[in-house]
């Protein structure tokens, strides 16, 4: 039976040398209890199409009223009135990234590097579990990968089998215990798990398990999976995983580790990405994005298909069908915002997708302009596509600071739009006297967009035309993305013209969902558009409600400790749920 250990050594410098173990044979076995299916490798032809949302320029209107202020009052102020807690911005946030490595003696170091490549998927916590002599060693911590790990800690994670996790969290005092990977012991050994996604039936499963005597140490839905594996009546570990996955609903791309196996699992809809690669020495790698494979010099082989279980052990690689799966519903926001441009996600280049989004905007929502700029970093590729198609120069009109920390001391004389100015600086030489097209990937609450427009105007821009490389977001995500409730989404509350007036731009255009679907061609039905349409492929049975602190787009007020999540049954209306939540958290 495997054991579990946790270590917290001090810091030092990282160095390593990679050796070459013998290659892992490629075999594919299917137990009689499964019905494997041939899952075709997805291909996504790139097509351009038209866009229909254009607006005539109008005079610049400055609005100071937040469109969600009728619903949310200001959160509690920081006890130090001159300091603020700065939350990155109002964009939806991917909640985590995972990696798994089998067959490399430098597994923990490679895992560390792969997690660094996936840092954009989660910045609040990181962890690695490594296997040595049948013992699962675990180190987790709060912060960036480079802050959690160092040479000393990696030296205490020997072995050729490892999994890792980076996490975005709503923070709070209990955050550390929720940092993955989780490790648990059960009667047949120990198991570690790292999970990207969200289970929509988490609360009901947890309540049932607790009624039967299970004790939970965290508030994470991932812990439910471990309990389901532990109580399964099946003896083989793989069958225990399948038994657990048959009971959970929602989005999950997971990697498991035991004393001698690495297992990758993807939910039947394939909401979140998970890819497989191989290094030149034969070691097998799983990761949320191909950018992680690139950094550790692993060659991309394929996706883990929706509904698939891939097992890697001394016998080689086995591919099993988890269960019959419906139409894939892959998250379109991976291509709009989450994934890095150099990644291949769901079988297509993220860079090419975003470039075509920009081309479509330029073709179907043209406007006379002198310069095209982007809201960095996620709007850059779409802006390049827009500029190339429009025949207008792309320039760097906004400079992003990559050294923004968590808390800042603000001068007693308040600075307007302080949070945005900390992160984005306008270039007056590019903007002054110019008609500017600014391209961004999305608008969520609209408050940050209004501040950006004001920033550009104050820097001398003659006109500001906003182009958004996604359809309007009208629905919350329940499949592993941190998004506000629908009442907080500006596109769910206002028309496009009302949004334009609120943010103060001279024109505004979104990418229509019909044009997005047309661009995806025959692969369009394979994507999830719930945040744009409000139609959910897996209907959430429970609704996550945000507290007041999480309703703020750039952390200008509200302390970090106030940000948390609560759960209510889905049969409550959103307004009833919010009223109840606010009464307990504010009054």
TrEMBL record:
GO biological process, one term: 'de novo' IMP biosynthetic process
InterPro entries tied to this protein: GATase_2_dom (IPR017932), Ntn_hydrolases_N (IPR029055), PRTase-like (IPR029057), PRTase_dom (IPR000836), PurF (IPR005854), PurF_N (IPR035584)
UniProt KW keywords: Glutamine amidotransferase, Glycosyltransferase, Iron, Iron-sulfur, Metal-binding, Purine biosynthesis, Transferase
EC class of the enzyme, as a word: transferase
Comp. bias (Low complexity): 1-21, 35-49
Annotated pathway: Purine metabolism; IMP biosynthesis via de novo pathway; N(1)-(5-phospho-D-ribosyl)glycinamide from 5-phospho-alpha-D-ribose 1-diphosphate: step 1/2
EC number: 2.4.2.14
Domain Glutamine amidotransferase type-2: 96-315
Top-level lineage group: Eukaryota
Protein's recorded name: amidophosphoribosyltransferase
Organism: Pyrus ussuriensis x Pyrus communis
Organismal lineage: Eukaryota, Viridiplantae, Streptophyta, Embryophyta, Tracheophyta
